Amino acid sequence: MDCIFCDLKNKKMPAQIIAKNKDFFAIFDINPKAQKHILIISNRHAENFHDYFSKNPENFKSFIEITNSLIEKYSLSESDAGYKIICNSGEKAGQSVNHFHAHLLSGKIGNWQV
Ligand code: 5GP
Ligand code: ZN
């Protein structure tokens, strides 16, 4: 199966990992839509939010933990810009990589409404 995020996870493609835990890793988005645009990606391949968490609901705790650690690492709670967490699920909802990931976004770029 061809999957960019599995390739990043398996080091078939280079990636600068900014955080990781037993279930997830985080990188900066290659095509940022915000001043800070982080991707939180599951180690295990699953198509989307529901596919991932319906099989491993207990992993929601480690998802929250890595997300909170990134909010703290980049002082997003203190940032005037605030932040958003988005999981696009399905092509029509904007999902382009079919491997579960969340976007953590802070700070506007151009006219893009974060
Ligand atoms: P989606 O559109 O599926 O919600 O989000 C996929 C995101 O992955 C996009 O924002 C896209 O820019 C990002 N992306 C795609 N390929 C790569 C890559 O090879 N490296 C990184 N860092 N980001 C990627
Ligand atoms: Zn994958």
Automatic annotation (TrEMBL):
InterPro entries: Histidine_triad_HIT, HIT-like, HIT-like_sf. PANTHER family: HISTIDINE TRIAD HIT PROTEIN (PTHR23089). Residues 4-114 form the HIT domain. One of its GO terms (molecular function) is catalytic activity. The active site is at 101 (tele-amp-histidine intermediate). PROSITE patterns: HIT_2 (PS51084). A motif (Histidine triad motif) lies at residues 99-103. This is Histidine triad nucleotide-binding protein.
